């Protein structure tokens, strides 16, 4: 079975990662927390008050960056 994951960098905004089923976020210390919903938005502007997740602060910070998508295929 091959799974394809597409990570989208939203123009001037966060990384968007689709979630199907259940997902878990694990930080550098190994602490894990469940991720809810069908999409996870990870901050790439550095201004979020809820890192690593986007909280919309990129708008107030006038974050500027191009958008794009990378597809990763796990086999
Ligand atoms: S990208 Fe949204 S708060 Fe950083």
Short description:
This protein is mainly beta.
Structurally, the number of domains stands at 1
User: What fraction, in percent, of the residue positions are helical?
Assistant: under 10%
What portion of the residues fall into strands of 2 or more residues?
35-45%
**CATH fold naming:** Ribosomal Protein L9, domain 1
Segments where pLDDT lies below 50 for 5+ residues? none
Give the overall pLDDT as a whole number.
92
Characterise this structure.
The chain is mainly β and 75 residues long. The strands form two sheets. The chain has a four-stranded antiparallel sheet with strand order 5-2-1-6, with no helix packed on it. β1 and β2 form a beta hairpin. The longest helix is centred in the C-terminal third of the chain and has 4 residues. It is globular. The protein starts with a strand and ends with a strand. The model has no long low-confidence stretch (mean pLDDT 92). The structure holds FE2/S2 (inorganic) cluster. FE2/S2 (inorganic) cluster binds next to α1.
């Amino acid at each position: 079975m091959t799974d394809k994951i597409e990570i989208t960098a939203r123009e001037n905004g966060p990384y968007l990662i689709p979630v199907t089923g259940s997902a878990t976020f694990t930080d550098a210390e190994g602490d894990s927390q469940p991720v809810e919903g069908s999409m996870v938005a990870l901050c790439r502007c550095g201004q979020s008050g809820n890192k690593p997740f986007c909280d919309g602060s990129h708008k107030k910070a006038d974050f500027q960056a191009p958008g794009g998508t990378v597809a990763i295929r796990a086999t």
